[in-house]
Amino acid sequence: MALSPYQQLEQEFRRLHAFRGALSLLRWDAAVMMPRGSADVRGEQLAALETEHHALLTTPKVARLLERAEAGASQLDDWPLANLREMRRQRDHAIATPPSLIARLAKATSRAEVFWVEARKAGNFKLFAPHLEEVVHLVRDKAALLGQARALAPYDALVDVFTPGISAADIDTIFTALSRKLPGLINSAIEQQAQSPPSTPVGKFTVARQRQLSVEVMKALGFPFDRGRLDESEHPFTEGVPGDIRITTRFDQSDPFTGLLGAVHETGHAMYDLGLPQQWRDQPVGRDRGLALEESQSLLFEMNLCRSRAFVKYLRPLLEKHLQVSGAEWTEDNLYRHLIRVRRSLIRMDADELTYPVHIMLRYELEKKILEGELPVADLPEAWNANLEQRLGVRPTSDVDGCLQDIHWAVGHFGYFPSYALGAVIAAQLNEALRAAQPSLDEEIGAGQFGGVMDWLRDNVHGIGARLPVKELIKEATGKPLSAAAYLRYLEAKYLSA
Amino acid sequence: MALSPYQQLEQEFRRLHAFRGALSLLRWDAAVMMPRGSADVRGEQLAALETEHHALLTTPKVARLLERAEAGASQLDDWPLANLREMRRQRDHAIATPPSLIARLAKATSRAEVFWVEARKAGNFKLFAPHLEEVVHLVRDKAALLGQARALAPYDALVDVFTPGISAADIDTIFTALSRKLPGLINSAIEQQAQSPPSTPVGKFTVARQRQLSVEVMKALGFPFDRGRLDESEHPFTEGVPGDIRITTRFDQSDPFTGLLGAVHETGHAMYDLGLPQQWRDQPVGRDRGLALEESQSLLFEMNLCRSRAFVKYLRPLLEKHLQVSGAEWTEDNLYRHLIRVRRSLIRMDADELTYPVHIMLRYELEKKILEGELPVADLPEAWNANLEQRLGVRPTSDVDGCLQDIHWAVGHFGYFPSYALGAVIAAQLNEALRAAQPSLDEEIGAGQFGGVMDWLRDNVHGIGARLPVKELIKEATGKPLSAAAYLRYLEAKYLSA
Q: Which chain B residues are within 8 Å of A48, Cβ to Cβ?
C-alpha cells in the first residue's frame, strides 16, 4: 500500500533524526575526547552534516508533502497532528534563512568568537566590538526573515527558535513581577544570612572520589548508566539522544559541590530526554519542548529538589562515605545553609539561585535594545555596568567581568538568555504542583528515593514531548497558567524562613 | 565562473568524505565509549548515514557528471585523472548491488552473526550452517553483479572491493610459491628453536604502566597524540580520518607484548592514514590503497621493524623503566627469541609470523570452493580440519577452534582473507627496498629513531594515496614487480639464522 503524505514525512524526518544524533555525538566527542589538533577536521564534518541536514529539510519534496499532509490534517489524530505542526515549524525555520545568510553568520560568529577570546585576554572590549556589530547586523536580518516566515515580531521569532510559544510580552510580564520583588528579597536574604553565616566546608577531594559520589547520586536519581555516560569537560553539558545520553560535569578538587551539582543539573536534562515519548523518539513531536523547559528540568533537580534540607539529609552520609569528611562544617544544617548562600556577584555563571535571574533580566533588556538599534554596541560596556549596579548594587571594574563574560552574543545567540530565567520560573511552578501531588516528597528525597518525582514528571512533562505548546503544557501539568507567582512564593519560603 | 563537471564531482565527493568521517567516529565510539544499552540507537544512526551516503553516491547527477568528466578526461592532470578513476570505481561498486540485495545481505549477515555466536557457545557448527548458506547465496549474487559492473570474474570482483587491482591469479602465483617453501621453513624453524628454547617472561603488569610504555613507543614511531588517540577495545583496530586517528589495543596483564605490539600494529595503519596526500584528503584518490596495502603497513611495523633484534635493543630499557622488570628472561637475546617463537597453532589470531600465512591460504582455498559450489557448506568442518592437518600438521578437535573461529564469513566478508597474507608479502618487499635505501636502519631503530623509515614510507607509499593501482605502486616503490621472493628471503633469514 502506498504511504500517505504524512507517512512519507515521517520517513523523511526519521532520516533527519539520525543526522541530529550523529551531529550530537560529533559535538560530544569534540568537547570530551577529541585530540586538540583535530578541531579543523571536526569542523568540516559538522559543517558538511549540518548542510546536508538543512538540504534534506528544505527540499521541494518536503514542501509538497507538507502541503498535501496539511490538506488532509483533519483525518490525523492528536499526536500525528502535533507532529505535523512541528515538522512545519522546523521547515519554516530552515527555509526562512537563506544559505547565504547562514554562511555569512557562520563566518561572522566564528570570527567574533576568536575576537571575544582576544578581547577577554586583553581586557579590551574595543577588540570585540566591530565583530559583535557585524553579528548583530546579521542577526537582525535573520530575525526579520524568521519573523516573516512565522508571522511573529523579529525578537519573538528569535525566542521562538529556542523556546517555541513564548513571546517577549510573556517574558515582560514575568520579568516585571520579578523586578518588583527580587531586590527586596535579595536584601533581606543577605541580611538574614549575615546574622549567622555558614562556615565553608574545605578540603582536597580527588576527582576519582568525587566521581564515585556523583555516580551514586545519579543512580539514585535514576540515570541509566547502561544507556548514558558521565564524563568531564570544561563546562557541564548534555548531548546525545534518548537511548544514549552523554552528560558531563567539571570537578573542582577544593569544592565537591561544583562537580556534584553540575552532574545533578545535567541529570535533570538527561532524565527529560530519556523520558520523551519512546514511540515518537525519531519524530519532531518526540523532542523536548525547547530550552526553557529543558532548563526547568535541570533547575528543578539542582535547585528545587537538591538544594534542599531533605536532599542534604540524604547527601551527608554519602559525603562521609566517599570523601571521608567530618566536622562542624559538614553538619546537615551548615551544609544546607552553605548551599543556599546568597551573594551579590558579577558573574552570571557563579551566581546563586536568588540573584541569578537579575543577571538574565539585564541581558534581556540590553539585547533587545541592541537589536532594536536603541543601544549602539560601542555603548554596551557602560550600559551593562550601570544596569548591574542599579539592579544588584555591584559594578564590574573590568569588562571581562562585565559584558565580555558570556559567549552567547558572539556566537549569535540572541533570544536565548531569557530561557534560563524562564526555566527557573517553570521549575518552581512544577515543583509546587509536584509537592501538592506528593505530600511526602521530602521524606522520599531524604531517603534518596526519586521514583515518585520521576513518575510525576514522566506523566506531566517528559512524556508530552512537543505535543503541546509550552504554555499549554504548563497549564495541563500544574493546573495554572504560567506565571512568576509560584517562583516568588518558593524563593520567599526558602530564603526568608529562618 | 561555472565549475567543470570534474570540479562538481570533487564537491560531491567532499560531502561523502565528511559522511565517512562521521560514520567512522560512530563506529569508534560504539566499540570504545558507548554504553552497552545504546547499540540499537547507534545501529539506526549508522544505517541512516550509510543509506544517505549510498544515495548521494548513486544519484543520476553523479552519473551524468562522471560521464561528462570522463569525456573531457584528456585535459586532466595525473592526480585528478586518478581521482576520476577512483570516483568511477566507487560509484560502480555502489550502483552494482541494488538496495534490495544490500538489505537482504544486511539481514542475513546480522542473523548469521547471531547464530555464529550461538554455534560457538554450543560448539555446534550445525546451528550456524543454514545461516552461512544463506549468506553464501547472497554473496554469490553480489559477486556476479559486481563482476559484471567491473568486468571481472566474480571472485576477483570481491577481492577488488578490498584490494583493488589484485586478482585471484595474482594470489595463486604468490600462494603457490609460499606453499612450496613454507612447510619446510616451519619445520626447520621449530626444530632449531627447540634446541635452545627461550624462557617466557612472566609477571603482572598494570594496564596503566603498559599504556605508558605503548605511548612512549608510539611517540617514537611518530604517532601524533595531538591528532590521534590510543584507547582500549576487545580487538585492536584503527578508525577515524587523517587528522583525527583513533587506534585501540588490548592489554593483557600477564603479557606486556600483546598490548604493545597491538598498538604498534595499529600505529602502522595510523601512520599510513596520516601520511596520505594532505591536498587530496577529502577525495577518493587521497584514500589508502586498499586492505592489503593497509595491512602491509601495520605488519611492516609490527613484524619487520619491531620483532627484530634492533627494536628489542631499543625496547629493553623501556621495559625496565615502565614495568620494572629484570632477570634472565628479560635479556635482549631471550626477548627477541621469545618474540619470534614459532608454534603450530589452531587459531589464526594467535598464530606467529611464520605460520600465519598457512591459516590464510587454507581460508582462501576453502572460500573459493564454497562460492563456486564445489564445497557444500555442510562439509566445511571436515574440509577445514583436513586442510589444516595437511598444511600444518595439527587438527582441531572442536569447530570452535576450527571453522567457527573467524567472524568474517558470517558477516559476508569473502575475498577479504587474502589481503592479510598479501599484506605480509608486500611488507617484506617494502622492507627489503627500505633497507637497501637506508643501510643504517637497524642502528636507528636500536636508538628509537624512526624518522628515516617514515620519510621513505611517505615518499614511496603513504603520499601516493590511491593514485596508482597496487601493483604499480609496489613496482615504483621497490623497483620490482610484486612477488613472494622478498618475503621468502626475509623469512629464511629471520627464522633459519641462529
A: 14-15, 17-19
